[in-house]
Amino acid sequence: MSLRTPLGQVLGTGAARQGVHHWWVQRLTSVALVPLSIWFLVSLLTLSSFDHATVTAWMAHGSTALLLILLVLVASRHSQLGVAVVVEDYVGGGLRTLTLVISTFAHVLLASAGVLAILRTALRGFP
Question: 88-99 as b/e, with b when 16 or more CB fall inside 10 Å?
């Protein structure tokens, strides 16, 4: 016996009408993080040194800057989704909404700062 309404069973949505969208986005971001993280680690390990000139020259390549920006954005979104799940599960009442809003703003701020730092560094090293 199911406690779901017939319409809920057909549509596959829960009480929040979100269905499995949140779950799918979190899984997709985790899958996207695997090759991006491997690329990042391998790319760093192949650098001859970690001085400012070498890293700036590495970041000045268009593909490197693009992949770094993708890494920052995908990691930020994945983190935001994970934090939201924890907050929804363990924070109650009006504090839940406030915490979710603050968490979202913090993730957007950190992602924006990361993208700005990558762009400034990459464009400064651009010939």
Answer: eeeeeeeeeeeb
